[in-house]
Predict the structure.
Amino acid sequence: MTSSSTPFLPLRLSIVSPPASKLSRFVPSPELRIRSPSYVAWTRRRPFVVVAAQSNFLRVIQTVWKVGRDGIEAGMDLVPDSVPRPVARIGVAVVALSLTLFVLKSFLSTALFVLATMGLIYFTYIALNKDGGSSRKGGGTAPKMDDPVDEARKIMEKYK
């Protein structure tokens, strides 16, 4: 590994005998040793930046491609030998793609249906409970009575 192949890590590792210092126990392998004398000054200036050689997305795509190719090869073994191999490969690929898209469509339609149902239930709940909540902890709304004696006088005057 050289510093030109990894631009973000200026350290050059080499295979040497283990150092006699106490730092040797922190090195992952006793055969690796840091050669850069400016290592301490470099770490004070800038924190480590770890960059993967490949992104995880690229690895996922490569794995899916390999699994798909192996699946098509296994599916070709199920096709009789009288069918030419290129035609069998295309036929198996079309069937596999159709099944994959069917499963994906089913999953997405189920997920969207559940989300739409949840949204409709939430919208209905909000529409039916427009009172904005109550000021009491009990939940219900009670008529406001500023003074019970005044309310009683109003009722008495009403029936005189």
